[in-house]
Amino acid sequence: xxxxxxxxxxxxxxxxxxxxxxxxxxxxxxxxxxxxxxxxxxxxxxxxxxxxxxxxxxxxxxxxxxxxxxxxxxxxxxxxxxxxxxxxxxxxxxxxxxxxxxxxxxxxxxxx
Amino acid sequence: xxxxxxxxxxxxxxxxxxxxxxxxxxxxxxxxxxxxxxxxxxxxxxxxxxxxxxxxxxxxxxxxxxxxxxxxxxxxxxxxxxxxxxxxxxxxxxxxxxxxxxxxxxxxxxxxxxxx
Lengths: 112, 116
Prior knowledge:
The structure holds two protein chains of two kinds. Chain A is an all-beta fold. Chain A has strands at 4-7, 10-14, 19-25, 30-38, 45-51, 56-59, 62-67, 72-77, 86-94, 101-102, 106-111. By secondary structure, chain B is an all-beta fold. At the A-B interface, strand 4 and strand 5 of A face strand 5, strand 9 and strand 10 of B.
């Protein structure tokens, strides 16, 4: 079955710098890749997603890139701010399978 | 349009008691998922339900745990005879089940279960 690996487990960046979190997946049939942000004491919130027919998607300071050949996708956050501090999860899913397979999460720390 | 509603937010039980966690999906959503999360860990899939049907319960322990999503009312995750190891945050997510949006899951704020 599908397996999703996420790196790094912890990422500390200076406020204003960029942060990049990477995920790899094993099943080439996967075609949907969401990213979720979880703040302390809250449920995960969808922040951006990408489908396999697109290589890149942007939403203000957040972007996701997808490399289907290499089977990896990445989250890019530019001009980081203190409120970006949270745990970020990637996931992958196949079109015919509703279940999301989750990465282990990355704790992003923004240093003032 | 209210989001996914979970209650209670916090639940304290003694060993051997029953825990009932409720989840009301977003309006118009007919698919519900339950996840478990231990501190400092990721989300572990437990069960996926549609109205009146369990679609995938591969992540749910065979004993003591059960889930339902009746035609009317919220989805219920039930844990019988709780043990200390059941202490965790339990999250519910819902999705519309429509062709293009079927994978998109929206999460509730979770129920934090503490077993004394």
